[in-house]
Amino acid sequence: MLSKILQEALNKQVALEAASSQAYLAMASWADIQPGLKGVTEFFYQQSDEERVHMLKLIKYVNERGGFAVVPALEQPIVTFQSLKRVFEEFIRHEIVVSEAINELVHMAFQEKDYATHNFLQWYVAEQVEEERVARELNEKMELIGEDKSGLYLFDRDILNYRNTGGGKKH
Hints:
Number of domains: 1
CATH architecture: Up-down Bundle
CATH class: Mainly Alpha
């Protein structure tokens, strides 16, 4: 049985994963109306889908453990960006926030001596290591590109290969 404290904390994580999904969906929509960013657009649509899967996994876990998972109301995410560089800066910032929240959940589960939840959360710990790595590397690439349009062209062309091969991972 899930404690009320962990149930509330896991429900907060559900909300954070849902907000992540919405944020990445907004990034995809913004990129979709920019000329020549079809790869970036698809990348963020995929990111949005992944975050929704993370949310559903949490919802199912809470309910399976005798708790009640709450589907959260969501605030409007940022919908316009000054530049693609800003999109990727927001991406890494968001992933760091999620990682910090997961770490806090792991700590809470350990303190509560809820080893089932502690074990369940290890998947999220590993996932966040990977998500932060991808976000950090893509930010580094954006820094290298700067305002170079040919670099941006190659970045957009390669971003999905980066995600689906050795540079990133496919879920």
